[in-house]
Structures are given as structure tokens and as C-alpha cells.
Amino acid sequence: MLKTRRLCLALGLAVCLTVGAQDNEIHQRSETYEWPTDQLVVKNLKAWQDLKFGVLFHWGLYAVPGMVESWAICDENWITRDSTRTYQQYMDWYFGLADELKPTKFDPTQWAEACSNAGMKYMIFTTKHHDGFCMWDSQETDFTIAKHAFKDDPRRDVLKHVLDAFRQKQFTIGTYFSKPDWHSQYYWWDVYAKKGRNVNYPVDQHPWRWQQFKKFTHNQMNEILSRYGKVDILWLDGGWVAKENRGQDLDMPEVARIARKNQPGIIIVDRTIHGPYENYQTPERTIPETQLDFPWESCIPLSDDWGWVPRPRFKSPEKVIGTLIEIVAKGGNLVLGVGPTPEGLIEPESVKRLNAIGAWLKLNGKAIYNTTITPYYNEGNVWFTKAKDGSRYYAIYRLNDGEKLPTSITWSQNLPKKAIRLVSNGKRVKYKLQGNQVTVYLPKQLPQQSIALEIE
Ligand code: GLC
């Protein structure tokens, strides 16, 4: 499924580029899952599974022109640029954005507030995307926000302020880190042509250079995980950086050692590389077809894009709520992509949508948070979850965009023994049991949105 989108940037020379996210190719869900052997990681994973809903921020150089994150500098056949500049000119322009990213209104407490109001419980922040630009004050490179246009601002070590703001709101904290680094001479070496997303030199012929890349990567991870307080999740993107692929071996046992020396029990997500370092799976922009009984998380952006773009096409709050309902009934978490503006704020339209999602969760969250799965999890528009102590089921009627609530709902398993109540106000609703079928009569004047019922 190649999704293609046209982006036109008016920046001196108009640059037109077609970016298609080849998501399926890169980020397919793993077929097997391996439970970690470290019991602290298992415990943390179980706690994370209870959270259900989080935010994934993409914020970096790409916010300045409002374009797709990083990918435009990568030559693959799904990426096209106009012919008015050479590749080198284009790279110079892109990397030069470091001198323009000056988020004078940077306010991570506004982000944390908006996400908390949305009912989100954990957050993941792009410390470094594939373009290699660091959103923390790395000592390993000058290519960081702390050493460019934002260098004189007291908040230049952006990562610190983002993590602090979210910790203040009791969020579980995750750091996104790109394994590939298209700015590093140890990954894309100017001596060779750049073709595609991979390392551009033969690793077996240049072992020293790859060794340097490994060291650089380990040191950067060490910075992120040692300097900024507690981090709960290390979310590693760029699944093509793997031993099996051109020898791009980052020595994952060593990565895990560094990570857990700094952060005992940290959840590591080496996306799409199933095994001991993919502690949960991350289907991207999709929901798995069936329920899965191991830890997983769908990552889906609120608009069509991960990062901020000037004219986003947003999903409706109802659509996001419906997605969350289905994901939770199937045993997963939803991490929703939000892109802060180049000035450093979450834009009003996003805030509005996040608020609407949060308003629903405030009333119906009992059927979502801290629940577990039940084998019979779906019948038509109705999705089921279960209280962890097994004392009750929840039936959530998902109202899809453009539909109206019916006057009654019927289902045929997870039947009531005592009562059915509206989760939003605890009031009993009328129902009729006939054979193995229950029909619930919804009260009039319910708001036209998805509705959660408690089955006792
Ligand atoms: C895709 C995109 C990448 C983005 C990630 C987030 O892999 O290619 O740019 O960071 O999704 O899940």
C-alpha cells in the first residue's frame, strides 16, 4: 500500500516532492513475540498495557517548512524532488534549517496539558529522527538544537524541558531514537553515493567506520538515558538497521546493557526486529485484524502526517475514539501522532480535537483504562473489554462517523447477570434477555457519540 501525497513548499525555489510512506514494507508487524526474561521489564510492560492511550511527538527540522519528517533527503524511488536544485543544494538547504528552527514560543507545559486533557497517559518524543538532528544538547555532534538558532535560549536543551513537563503530569516517558543517522559521516559517508535509506558504504570493507557509528550511537543513547531523569521506554525506529541487513549491527545486547544500566527495567522497542529487544510490537497506521495477547501498540497520527504541516487533514475525534475502542478490545495501546509547530506549540485545532477525545474518556474511560481483553471481543459495532478482576464486562458501542445511535443494541455473549449501566453516569438501563441474546434499550437524549456500558 503506497500512499502518495504531494507537498509543495514555496521556499525561494519551489520544491515539489512526492512522499509516500512505504510503511508496510518497513514496519510490518512481527509474527512472533518473545516475552522478556527480565521480570522488571515484564512488570513495566504490564503496567504500560494498562495505560492504553499515549502521544507520539515528531518535532525537528522538518517542522520549519512543515514537510514530511526527514524522508525528503533520502533517495528512494517513491521520493521525487523538482529539478531546480542539485541534490547537494537540497541537502544544504535541509540541513541549513538548523539555523531556522527557533521555537520562541516553546511551551512543553502546553503540550502536556493538552495531552493530559486528552486522557493520554504516556508520551514518546523524537529525540532524533533519521535526519540526525538532535533535540537534546548532545556532546557527540554539533548538529543539535542546542547549538544552532535556539542556542541562546535557556530552554535550548529541549528534551529536558519536554520530559520534565510530562513527568509533572504523571506521564510514562518514552524516547524515540532513530537508529539510522543520515547526517553522520559514519552512516552516510560523502565518499560514496547516497542511494536509499541504508548505510551507503560497504560495512565489511570499512569496519572501523561502522565501529565509529556504533560508538556514536551508543554514546548518544547513553546521554539520553543518563541525563534526563527516569525514562520508561526506548523506542527505536529504522528497523532496516539490523545485523541481517548489510551488516548494520548496532550490537543490541550492548544497547540493552547501556539502557538498563541507566534505566533498570526500561521497555525497549527495537521496532520490527522480533526477539528479546522488541518488548512490544508497533503496527503503524493500522490496527491488527484480530486480537493479540502480547503487548502491542498501533501508532497512528492525528492528521495524515507525523510532523506539523501547514494544512493538516485531521481525523475527527470520533474517528480516534473509535480507533482506540477497537485497539483496546484487541489488546493493544494507541499512540497518537501529534506534531508541534515550528514555534513550539500544539496548534489550536489539534488541542480542540484532543479535548474532545478527553471529554469522552472522562465519561467512558472506565471501559478503556486498566481493562483486559475478553475472548469474545466484537459483535458488529459493539466491542468488549473486561475489568481486570473479572467482575464485569464492558460493551462499547462504537459510533462511526456519520452514523446515529440506535434505540437498542443487541449482542449474544458476555451477557448480564444482574444489571447493565451506563459507564458515564452509573445509571441502569433497561434490557431484555432472550435465549442467548440481550437487547439493551438506550435512553433517549444520549449524546451522539460512542457509548460504554457496564455489564454486571
Ligand atoms: C514511519 C516513518 C517515520 C516515522 C515513523 C513513526 O516509519 O517513516 O518517519 O517516524 O513512521 O512511527
Automatic annotation (TrEMBL):
Top-level taxon of origin: Bacteria
Residue ranges constituting the Glycoside hydrolase family 29 N-terminal domain according to the UniProt record: 22-366
GO cellular component, one term: lysosome
Enzyme Commission number(s) of this protein: 3.2.1.51
Record's signal peptide: 1-21
Presence of the UniProt keyword Hydrolase in the record: yes
Site entry: May be important for catalysis: 299
Molecular-function annotations in GO: alpha-L-fucosidase activity
Claim: Repeat is one of the keywords in the record: no
Protein role: Alpha-L-fucosidase is responsible for hydrolyzing the alpha-1,6-linked fucose joined to the reducing-end N-acetylglucosamine of the carbohydrate moieties of glycoproteins.
Record family assignment: Belongs to the glycosyl hydrolase 29 family.
Protein name: alpha-L-fucosidase
Source organism of this protein record: Xylanibacter ruminicola (Prevotella ruminicola)
